[in-house]
Amino acid sequence: MMTGFASFIIVLLFILMVLASGRFFYGRELKSRARKLSRTFHLEIPNMDYSFEQIVYFISLPTNIPSIRNASRDNLVIKLDYKSLIFPRLSGLKMYIKSEKEKILLAYLPIKDFRLPALDQILKQGKINESDYRNMSTCKLIHPATLKEINEEVYQQIQVGRKRRKPAGAADPEQRTVKAL
Amino acid sequence: MIAKYSLVFFLTIMTAVLANVFRFKLNATLNRWILIISSLVLVEVQGYLFDFQHTNWMLLLFIGVSVLSFGLRGGIIGIGAAWLILYAQCRVSDLSVGLTYLLFTAGIYMLIRHIGHLQSESEDWLGKLTENSRQLNVFKEVSLSMQQTFNLDKLLQTILTSVTAGHGLGFNRAVVMLMNEQGTKLHGIMGTGPMTSEEGYAIWDRITKHKYKLMELIEIKEKEKSSSDLKLNERVKKIEIPLDEPNFLAEVLEGDTPRHLQGIRADERDRVLQMLGREFNMSELAVFPLVSQGIKVGVLLIDNPVNRKPITANGIDSVLPLANQAAIAIHQSRLYMKVEDMALKDGLTGLHNHRAFQSLLTQHWPVSGEPPIALILLDIDFFKHFNDTNGHLLGNEVLIQLADVIRGSIRKHDQAFRFGGEEFVILLPDTEEKEAVLVAELIRNRVENTSFPGGDQQPAGRLTVSLGVASSRKMPSLTPMELVDTADQALYQAKESGKNRVVC
Fold it and tell me: What residues of A are in contact with residue B68 (Cβ under 8 Å)?
């Protein structure tokens, strides 16, 4: 005989498993589909060019806010912004400055604005549709190399603002791995 | 019993994982169906293993997932299905169970609606924040860039780049037309953007490859102004639109509000619109009046020929503050140029004045090893006699006509100035004395052969000039003012030795 409590635990376990593994399998499927599409169109996702300028900063950088001005790379956190728990859909990247005391939303990069010239061209030619586009651009966005570059770019913005910067992709070799939550 | 428990826990995990493995491979609707079916599978497995003991309330999971997946409709169908399953497998037809299902569905639905409402509100806020921050950032950068210059070309390039850069306001192409001084015509001044989509993608590709920022892009465009957007600018510069004839641009300027035009056809009644459609392949455009303190400066046109993205009301609103700021900057730049012009130009002849001469002489003065500079100082012979005979008004006309002759006789890089009174000076950079003498002789000859009003009243029967030439080659240790003095002495000799001649 099964107790009501055990049944409740089973229901709970099912819901938790669906929630916990949902984003993982969504991401896996996204990558798998993007890989197939990129093979079809002879594109290499890690090598596709994009612009940092789609990142929207909510705070004028460099700033005098002490917690941002003094932030280290460890304090910079990139969080994937999903729309739903049960039916996850990535809608952008949120960039925070996180310290023990506070968490400040610094910038946002909406997926809809993350446009890539290589994809724009094949979209215009009608070889892919908007859904395929979104699939591949999302895959490019969550690629560890992209996240690493975005992390470095945002850190540069905090340090020196928009006027001076290192050349594209000139990341500090000692920089740490990006925290994408 | 433990084995059964282990089995049901294992199957629960497997059902959830398998559902997630497969549902994301399919479209949104099938994704939802798989989740519903997996919840039903779990209910059934639990039922079979434990004699449907808790099936009546385990079915709440199935109903809940149905509501989550398809809203109220899904919930109602879920209740029906759950009721049938319960009856078929447990022979339960208790109304209270049905009522519980209904209340549960209503509760879940309200909760989901509330969460959905909160989520959509939050997304809406984030969207607004993102959009406004983007516009503010662009506006801030562009304002800063505009404040740093009075140069009209640079200003226009800044405005156009910020409107068209993908990370600016994101339009594919923009064109500025400015009004002439009389306010009768609009002239195409500058454009940025491609003529074809291929060209557009090539630009976009280059921007992303180098990861250019908006400010960098403005600087690059400024440096490459002669080579970038060549095809577009060739056509833009030919635009001349009369404002006394009815056309949509005149109406926009008159109405002082932006206008959005869609579905531009080849047979448009409006000739200007027809021309824009034909020459620039415009099928949809937005036009903004550039008006500063009530003064009409020009218009800004935007369109999307590359991605054919429709122009939205939000897009138009995002350009408006920039267009207003641009109008002020263009107006101020024009005023500044006017004042600068007045300060450096002679009001009568239109040539540069003595102040401009001093400044340019120092600027062009050769440093060691550089090619020499030459000067020609020119004076009208018997000009006092001319004024006494013909009056000062005719004297002024002669000065204007003489300035035209000088202007037409000097080379491309030479510059002519009114030195004062009836004296003129010509600055010849990178010029040897021999070449300067040739230019001086050409001027003398042309003046001699030009018919000036009242010229026949002169002692020689025509108006003539004397010219003194000096070059920095002869005495490299000369200062700029000493070179002027040398040219002045040569001019004096020309006068002394009979006038109407060149002396060096």
Answer: 86
Q: What separation in angstroms does the CA of A78 have from each of A94, A161, A178? A: 6, 19, 7
Helix pair angle (B392-409, B383-390), 10° resolution: 130
Q: Quick count: other Cβ atoms within 10 Å of Cβ B422?
A: 20
CB of B309 closer than 8 Å to CB of B127: no
| ipTM summary value | 0.82
User: For chains A and B, what is the number of CB pairs under 8 angstroms?
Assistant: 129
Which are the contacts of B308, defined by CB distance < 8 A and separation ≥ 6? B283
- Is A104 within 8 Å of chain B by CB? no
Judge whether B304 and B264 are in contact, CB under 8 Å: no
**Across the interface, which of A1, A7, A50 has its CB nearest the CB of B58?**
A7
DSSP string for A104-143: EEEEEEEGGG---HHHHHHHHTTSS-HHHHHHHHHHHHTS
Examine the pLDDT at A117 and tell me if it is beyond 60.
yes
Nearest to A90, CA basis, from B443, B24, B488:
B24
Helix (H, G, I), strand (E, B) or coil at B179: strand
Please indicate whether, in this complex, the C-beta atoms of B141 and A162 are within 8 angstroms of each other. Answer: yes
Q: In order of start, what are the domains of chain B with their CATH numbers? A: 2-119 (no CATH), 150-338 (3.30.450.40), 354-503 (3.30.70.270)
CB contact under 8 A, B130 and A117: no
Angle at B42 between CA B37 and CA B44, to 5 degrees: 90
Residue type, B97: V
Residues A69-82: tens digit of each pLDDT? 888 888 999 999 99
Question: Residue B388 is which amino acid?
Answer: D
For the question of whether the overall pTM of this predicted structure is more than 0.80, the answer is: no
Residue B427 CB neighbour total at 10 angstroms: 22
Residue A68 in this model has a pLDDT that exceeds 70: yes
Q: Where do the DSSP E strands lie in A6-102?
A: 56-57, 76-82, 90-98
Q: Hey, is the C-beta of A115 within 8 angstroms of any chain B C-beta? A: yes
